[in-house]
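Protocol step 4 of 5: obtain the predicted structure for the target chain.
Materials: sequence only (see below). No template structures provided, no constraints applied. The aim of this step is simply to have a reference model before the mutagenesis design in step 5. Sequence pasted as it appears in the construct record:
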Amino acid sequence: MKFNTGLALAVVMIAPNMAQANNELFNWYGSIRVELQSSKNNEVEYKDNYSRVGAYGSTDVMDGLKVSYNYEIRLKTDTHVFGGDYSNRLANIGLEGDFGSVLIGKQYAPIWNYTDNAIDIFADIDESAGCTGDAICHTHRFGLYGKDAAGNGHYVEVLRPDRAITYSTPTFGGFDGALMVIFNDGDVKADATGDKSEDIVGYNAAAKYVMGDFTFSVSRFDVTAFVGENKIDSFQLAYNHENLSLAVHYQQSNDMRFYAGLNPAGEIVEEDVYEVYVGYKLDKVQLQATYAIVNMDSPSNVTVDSNQVIIDAIYPHKYGSFYIEYSAWGDEAEEVFKADDTLTVGMRFDF
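Step 4 output (structure tokens):
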């Protein structure tokens, strides 16, 4: 599984950096992100690193009740495509008041907001798409794959699920939480004949507690409509003080995989990921590093025990940043998944 941790504990990228005036009902924004990536095979490739454009706004509709929205689509500078299939990143509307908030539509899941945002920023979708073939899966950023009661295969996105409703609580003495429910579009079947459909595909519950410079958070993402276990349990402890950021992250996940050595029809694989992050701001440069251990076990007794090291240097400019990243995998990941050590140089421009 590729959990390509990009490393920016002090920067949570749920809300984009915007240079536009803060109009109440309509604000547009964008982010162009381009990079060159070199591998040990001496190949250099141009890549787009999730460029996007979007709009957001909010307003009070009655005393104590605010309505907000956010719509965002992908810009692909490598293929010159604006939007297109599978490029809708966000499309939601929300209600906010003293009761907390409710968000409806395609949105970031609580697992990202609570337990993954400290460690995962620069992940590369080209190296972890679909969890099939020789690709390295990255469950806690992308999705879970499984089969419904009728034997149909489905992929449920974890980072930004569709057809979701999330309730987030107010903060009580340092505690707050969120519960997301993901609804079916009729494709996920509830019986072997395929005559009935599930109403709810799954849920994501998360909570956190903030005490001074420490934040402890937990999350469970469970696709209950699939046959067998298809879930992610994750825990994160983060520390931020002045220029220093530290985090430890543990994740256990179960979902269907198809890599070499497994049953060709797929097997439910259990995976444990242990990650440690350190970041330090030295003058204007943000230096970051992670070390991670990945252990995977399957019913066929095909195991993968590997590790990964990532080192980043990020230099901010007025409207974004320049960055360089080195990523190195352990031998077993290179053998089983054809993982590769990479050197990446990139630029981000926000507007």
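Step 4 remarks: The mean pLDDT is 83. The radius of gyration is 20 Å.
Proceed to step 5.
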